[in-house]
Amino acid sequence: MNIKGELDSFSKRYAMQIDSMGSDGDEMRSINHPVVFVFLGDHSADALEAVHSLNRTKWNNSAGVVYLQLGTKQTAPLDNVYGWSLPASAESKQTLRPSIREQFYADEAKRLELNVTLRRMNSRIAEFGRMYTHLQRLNIAIVTRLDDPFNVLLPEIAVLMETIFGEQFRSVVLDLYGLLEEKAVGDAFAFQSSLGVSFLRELDMYQGRDYTFEGMLQLTGEGVSLPAAHSPSPLFDMVYLLSDKDERGIFAENGMQGNYEAICNLNLLKNRKSNNELDPQHAVYNNQHFKQNATPSDGDGRSYASAGFSKITRPSQPVALTVLYHVYHRLIERMQENARMDRGSIQEMLELELHYWDRDILSLLPDPQKAVEGMFSLLHSKISYAELMTLTLRQAESALYGGNAQTFFETNVVRGLERGFVESNFAGRLKMRLESKVIRNSLYGYYSASLWTSYEESGSLINGIREKAKETAKLLEQGRAELDQVYAERVEQQSFAKMSLWDRFTNKASVKGMTRPFLELVYGMKVELLLLEMKLRLLNAYLQELEELHDRAQPFVERFRQLEKTLHEASRGSISVTSDYLGRNINEYYGHAVQEILTELEGRRDVQFYFDERQMGNLSLMLAEGEEHVLQRLMEMTRKEVFNHPLFNQTFEDELLERANVTAGYENREVLSKEDLFRDLYSTLENEAAIRADVYNSTHKHRYVEKYFFGDFDSEFIRYAFAVDQGSRTYKLGCVQEMKRSGIEKLNVMGGFRIEDLMYYRNGKRYYDTYVQNGYNFHSMDI
């Protein structure tokens, strides 16, 4: 299992859930008219995947958006994505762009395929009709990299789409999004710049008021060609040029990602479904108004736009991972507390108290006295009483019974006791108790088992039993020494050999009368030694069972700890890539929040509610199946019990302010005020939304700017943002209503510059001119 991948998915799902939280304002995130995204050239494949993913998360009716990838490679396997390709050109770089156009016109089968693909897309859009408010207008957003040679086909693709889609829609509006990659990498930078400049020169022609196009681009299955035409007017309604370098000359950290988000938000801005279109306070975007203000009155009508996008969101992924870590940490704490049971209680639960051991051993020999009584009937050898008195007890036993007494004892007592010990399977019974009362008890499991059987814990079962085993072994040693000592004593010294004067006088003393007390003394001691041996054997068997359990449990404890370490590292790693003030106190704030929430749940339910089958259940058995099972259940419990708490339903601003001050005392006057926080947010959003086009003399007189926040009209921050420079504002400020609680987005749109104002064009023109002088042909038309 890829734990890191699972954690990443979990945090992303939470981030998406938070991003979509809101009220009925969600419907404002739908687009009003159908949109088709066209990605022209192989270099725009990344843009396709990014825009497809962003639309899916930003627009409620994104399932009705259709995409087309054009180039020389296979199309990404995504929903509603159509593809069309030409074989890669084998021509040299000197004629690369013109050769692609020649190939397009020469391959009739490919042109027919393109016609069929576009008509299939047209039908597909009609199937999604119910997802849109209106089907009168179609917006086509063409995305291409300026240095992609495939964009030489831009007019053919645009006009053919305009013609075919125009059969179903009364109005077809085309926008172009040109992506500039200025971060020169490798030795092909000069040629790539020349390709980009050649495209910009063609684009300037397409955007002329008198631009026309007509070509036999429509093709039927019978080989009949039909014209596709564009009447005198600019080819595109709007042209946005978006670079990886902003107007300050700074390369963006996220490369093109900000541009992809700008493309999505520009399309939402132009096509959004809104209930507040007439709200003068929040200045809804008007495309015609922007075009008029961004088009210089002293020129030929050609004007280009760019944009800058920024967003500040609650660091939801770090939050999710941090919360998950702290929930798991609380679980481990509870498992540790459960394992801290006193040894007496554990021994009682597992029947490992002294009285249980004595009971088990005595069950093998219920009446030790009867074990000796069976020996009273043994026949003894003839020996005089007087002679017997002079012998030691060991000599007396040999003289009386030879080896018969010991043989009888071993056969009828020792072997029977050993057989009973084996049949009773005390170790197996302990193993079953350990399994049922510890491992399968969700309160204890392997965590408690490891602690209770540890050599390092002074109060552990193993140490307790080892102490008893040492005591028993010592008693056994002492007992054997006492037996040897008794065996060495003379018979006449024993109490049972003492006779009264009368017995001596009447000569009643006999050998037979002495055998019973003799056997009771010697073999009574042997029975006691045998029971001690059985007890020591029992304790050693228990020790072995507990040691085996410890060896089995310890790796699970290490896995529990390793999982905790993995969660902690994932949390810290995610926080570390969050900007300083957005990531401030995430661990402290959410660690405290989790403690509060779980303490509240413990008070309402039970301190052990975690281990209920409806929650985590038995973590040990789950871990035995794999860490992924523990992780999945932990995620479920966190989603259900923690993320649903009202604390996680705060606005972005309130959460950030609380978290920023979580470690501040009431007497601390250096805490971050709400105004300070809003000022930082406003400044960050504005800086990060710098226009993504490095325009020469960016304060030129035709510069026209509009700025839009994406958030809740009524939030405190939006009200603050509208009041910042009220009365002195030189740009139009608007707000797109979105009931987003996860953060705030900002889109700055700037228009009014010409192609020659772009630093990209100015710097690349000299490369372009040099390549042309060296025989390179970048165009297939007269420009």
Explain the layout of strands and helices:
Elements (H helix, E strand, L loop, with lengths): L2 H17 L15 E6 L4 H14 L7 E6 L9 E5 L10 H11 L1 H20 L9 E9 L8 H12 L5 E10 L8 H18 L6 E7 L5 E6 L7 E6 L13 H15 L15 H8 L9 E10 L2 H24 L3 H7 L4 H9 L5 H6 L11 H5 L3 H9 L2 H21 L1 H14 L5 H8 L8 H28 L12 H6 L5 H65 L9 H19 L14 H7 L1 H16 L9 H9 L13 H15 L15 E8 L4 H8 L8 E6 L5 E11 L5 H15 L10
Protein name: Transcription initiation factor TFIID
Organism: Paenibacillus radicis (ex Xue et al. 2023)
Structure overview:
It comes from Paenibacillus radicis (ex Xue et al. 2023). This is Transcription initiation factor TFIID. This protein is an alpha/beta fold. 52% of the residues lie in helices and 11% in strands. It contains 27 helices and twelve strands. The strands form three sheets. Strands 3-2-1-4-5-8 form a six-stranded parallel sheet, sandwiched between helices. Residues 23-27 and 500-508 have low confidence and may be disordered.
The tally of helices reads 27
Class inferred from helices and paired strands: alpha/beta
Biggest sheet: strands, sense, closure?
Answer: 6 strands, parallel
Distance between the termini: 59 Å
| Cα Rg | 45 Å
The overall strand count is 12
Helical content band: 40-55%
What form results from the Cα inertia axes?
elongated
Name the beta content range.
5-15%
Mean pLDDT value: 86
Q: Give, in spatial order, the strands making up the sheet with the most strands.
A: 3-2-1-4-5-8
Could you list the spans in which at least 5 consecutive residues all have pLDDT below 50?
Answer: 23-27, 500-508
